């Protein structure tokens, strides 16, 4: 069975990932990407990839899952940024 | 000496925290908080607090530091949201 510490980690993962979803949804719906900085996106995605590797190295499933999902969302924002930049 | 895994964690912490700073700076400068959802801020701060406790429980200094700094920034955004909502 999963231990209570892991459960807390999963709760944390769900909460911080959920808080990030409106940004992705709003960008997708409005196609407005002026407010998204490409530099910021690169820094953010690099950070998430480091967290992902760190999660594997310390064997933390919540960190792996949280950053796996968020890095996909980060790449999605990057895709929107490139795709909608000329609108 | 700090081990390579911890260093990777610190790099991750610096990168994701740095990526969050422009949001705080822009909100502070523009005093524009319409785009900030109070519900999202509560979910985000709750998530960060869970990560903070999780960091202590699994003894991960990078997770503790990253979420300690980010939770302060989160509370700062919450303060801006409440302070500037009537502008």
Automatic annotation (TrEMBL), chains A, B:
Membrane topology designation: Multi-pass membrane protein
A Pfam family recorded for this sequence: PQ-loop
The keyword Membrane belongs to this UniProt entry's keyword annotation: yes
Keyword Transmembrane: yes
Transmembrane segments: 6-26, 38-57, 63-80
InterPro entries (UniProt xref): PQ-loop_rpt (IPR006603), SemiSWEET (IPR047662)
Chief localisation class: membrane
Protein's UniProt name: MtN3 and saliva related transmembrane protein
